[in-house]
Amino acid sequence: MKNTFRPLLALFLLLSVLTGLLYPLAVTALGQALYPAQAAGSLVLKDGKPVGSLLIGQNFSDPGHFWGRPSATGPQPNNALASSGSNQGPLNPALVDAVKGRVQALHDADPGNTASVPVDLVTASASGLDPHISVAAALYQVKRVAAARKLDAVKVEALVAQNTERPLLGLMGEPGVNVLRLNLALDAM
68: Cβ–Cβ under 8 A, 6 or more apart, which residues? Predict the structure, then answer.
């Protein structure tokens, strides 16, 4: 029994050190060497202070900023520690009521906007943390943002176009707009 147990224990310790210590350290070092900004959380700095991450949605709610997707995290929005979907299906009355409330909030913030509301402005993403909205969702908000900031809507629309991220290699995904990046560009105008 002793002869069998000793090699098993040695193998367990070796694999524990390899997979639990050396491999994570190597991957972390490689990530920080090749992609330092991403490994550090893709933090965005303004005046030397972090204002957010390009990877996690921010909670913008004033009319002078573009709004992101609703967050499914609770009790505070865009809480990365509570990342998960709402697990509410399309026929769930709670989801239907939440979407109706979000549509009403968008109409209340911009009563003159009669365009149909893009779905990503009223539904949370799978993680509840999505930092991007569709181009249609950004364009839907242009008039409200321009009016609140007393800017020409054409200039704000051009800013949306400048901050639109194209699909990877022109093939993978849809064009989208990072809300934090767009709002920082808007603040810089």
Answer: 57, 58, 59, 60, 130, 131, 132, 133, 179
Say which residues have a Cβ less than 8 Å from residue 44's Cβ, sequence separation at least 6: 50, 51, 52, 53, 54, 180, 181, 184
> What is the reported pLDDT for 156?
92
Instruction: Give the bridge partners for 45, in sequence order.
Output: 50
Q: For residue 60, what are the contacts with CB-CB under 8 A and spacing of at least 6?
A: 66, 67, 68, 179, 183
Residue ranges per domain, the chain? 1-39, 41-188
The amino acid occupying position 126 is A
**Where does the pLDDT of residue 79 fall: very low under 50, low under 70, confident under 90, or very high at 90 and above?**
low
Report the distance separating Cα 70 and Cα 120, nearest Å.
8
Note the pLDDT of residue 39.
82
Give the predicted TM-score (pTM) of the model: 0.77
User: Of 40, 65, 36, which is closest to residue 144 (Cα–Cα)?
Assistant: 65
